[in-house]
Amino acid sequence: MKYERLRGFRDLYPEDMEPKDRFFEQAKKVARSFGYAMIDYPSIESIELYLDKSGEELVGQTFSFTDKGGRNVTLLPEATPSVMRMLTSRKDLPRPVRWFGIPKIWRYEEPQSGRVREHFQFNADLFGPNSPAADAEIIALASDILDSCGLRNRFHIRLNNRKLMDAILESINVKDVPKAFSIIDRFHKIDVEEFRASFLAVAGNKDNVEKVLELIREKGEADAMLEKIEESFKDVEKINEVLRNLKQTANLISDYTGYTPYLDLSVVRGLSYYTGTVFEFSDAEGQFRSILGGGRYDNLAENFSGTEIPAVGFGMGDVVVELMMKKYGKWETSVDAIKSYLVSTSQSGAEICMKVAKTLRESGIVATSDLSGRSITNQMKSASSSGAHLAFIAGDRESESNSVTVKDMATGSQTSVPLESLDSYIFSKIGELRQRIST
Amino acid sequence: MKYERLRGFRDLYPEDMEPKDRFFEQAKKVARSFGYAMIDYPSIESIELYLDKSGEELVGQTFSFTDKGGRNVTLLPEATPSVMRMLTSRKDLPRPVRWFGIPKIWRYEEPQSGRVREHFQFNADLFGPNSPAADAEIIALASDILDSCGLRNRFHIRLNNRKLMDAILESINVKDVPKAFSIIDRFHKIDVEEFRASFLAVAGNKDNVEKVLELIREKGEADAMLEKIEESFKDVEKINEVLRNLKQTANLISDYTGYTPYLDLSVVRGLSYYTGTVFEFSDAEGQFRSILGGGRYDNLAENFSGTEIPAVGFGMGDVVVELMMKKYGKWETSVDAIKSYLVSTSQSGAEICMKVAKTLRESGIVATSDLSGRSITNQMKSASSSGAHLAFIAGDRESESNSVTVKDMATGSQTSVPLESLDSYIFSKIGELRQRIST
What we know:
CATH superfamily of the largest domain in chain A: Bira Bifunctional Protein, Domain 2
CATH architecture of the largest domain in chain A: 2-Layer Sandwich
Number of strands of chain A: 18
Largest sheet of chain A: 10 strands, mixed
Oligomer: homodimer
Helix content of chain A: 40-55%
Mean pLDDT of chain A: 93
Strand content of chain A: 15-25%
């Protein structure tokens, strides 16, 4: 090939893009049923929007450049700062504000399974309330989206709280907490000896490393895990307070979704602005990278406008969802549309076909032709290989009688339908075909 | 504000993005009814993809940069080369190939009314057949999309053919035809004296300038215009041949769409790869820049893979469509969804509300709450200001009786509904509310 696409980028052909688009349609529908409304924002922002806020690692992975006007800009490496910029630019929005968007996101990382340099991200945020109920709502939204795409019980909800981790790290005298989070965030990507070595630098001594290692290795249903941690840290009031919040959040999630969330102290999320609840959803069979992640970030608004606005949200990339849906047979490349094929054998027949096509499409039937002017035999072959349910055939004879010949491709039966009764013919035929397709 | 969005870029809040998304949903639906399937491609491509093919002006307007791997890349300034790259990478696609996509497109131009630096573009292409019927199909697709969005009869279809212009320019001895096209393309953006001065350089003498000026100034319904041109150039066989093609295309468009297309020789399109039919749709009242534009580009595939593949397509930006839909009152910020509000007065009530919410959402009803834990009076005020049709209220009393109290916000009537009969209650209430909303 003379021109290649860039490394780490994807060409999405219909067999991939049609099911992907259906997934996003479904996500939008569920989000709207929760009262979330769609927004969109530029794909390019000033690089300043991410400095200090998102964390060094992310800023190092941006597609950034200087534009023709001399501005230092970057393709969006994540959605949250843009959403926050939009939120804090408007003072008139009644709270709670519930927004979602489906931007593209770019990261200059090494491409690997489940990771590309450009992906779509379904992103939802809830601004205003700061409560376990708010955290549970955003998690329920994510969970309902996956349920509605056929992934019910295929994933685990893994929960944690940055405040719990802060208090635990503080109780063992870790000074550089952000650094500790960034090491814990990479726990599943590095081997345990590498983790031990990196963490020793922030933990001070080996005992502390082992203590943290034990905590982040153990995961289980939230109730049991919470009791265990309570037992270990029963003298630390700060920890008990967060545990109560976590317990309430976990219970509300169960009520809302029917899932029992897991408590997993290795879930801390890579971005530096999270302040409370953090969560990831992962394949129940542990095969893929996480499906989605998010959390509470109550201090970010202050950074933008000087006023605090509680916030919780999540981002779900399209890559792992696709792998999951494929794994569980939910990635269907075609849907049950009724398809028709137009076959014309003369100029006057072509005119009839155009009118017929308009009526078919308005009735929700896909109508195509090969536009080739080839013989009727060849056109009928195309009709057959296209998977059409009906062929509409018109030539001079049909033009004279102002009619069209309809062939049912499954039964082979042919009927002549006068154009003036085409509507009612199509109406009854749709009913018949829908029944046939669904059985 | 501490952080500003970049100049020429847009923040799309729900009042803009929700109707925009509905427009794209409608466009997708119509495209699928024509048998077109959705694709997507990277937002970044190697700059080489546009050099020599798209024209100098466009390449000068790109957001281009060198990536971290030293590649010279650019944000997509148009969709066609990427689509062509995808087409020519696959040898197994049965023709005709019918594709559409909704990429974002970037141009570093001076922002002005109807022009921004980043926009969405609905883009459709038909590969394989080279015939007036194929050209008419792609134009009918564009026209049906606009019709279905409430713009029927609000726009004109303006048609031309590059071959006609080639032959006309040749007949008056214009040597640099691409240069002539680029001047003609800017005809409506510059004043007539500027046009005369620029065109003199390619036309050789003032008589030729006036001849061309007369031709591109006159526009009218295709039939009449075609006859007139035929009359003026009756000795030039090349011109007569194109005129026959144009006539057939115009007739098919009429059959297909019910619109009489205009012939407008000032429509040549800015991109250099067009080879035949070119077209633009414009506001019938002449207020805005063109709504969409496209044409036939049969030689581009050869540039990619050495093999010719006939192609015709169009691109429709979201900006002028939005202006049009706003002008004609078709840009509706909200749709007729049934909305409900959940009001809980205790912990046990909150649990009931969550279960009720799930049932409501699954029935297609929007269900929200303010998650505030405020007094029932304040929650009911929020319910009212949110525009909810129904409020579902639960506290300890409802928890004991395993029921929920439903208030019809329009009539003020309240009912207690046992949770086990919630489904049937919602079903009958939906019917009642749909009727009320639609009348």
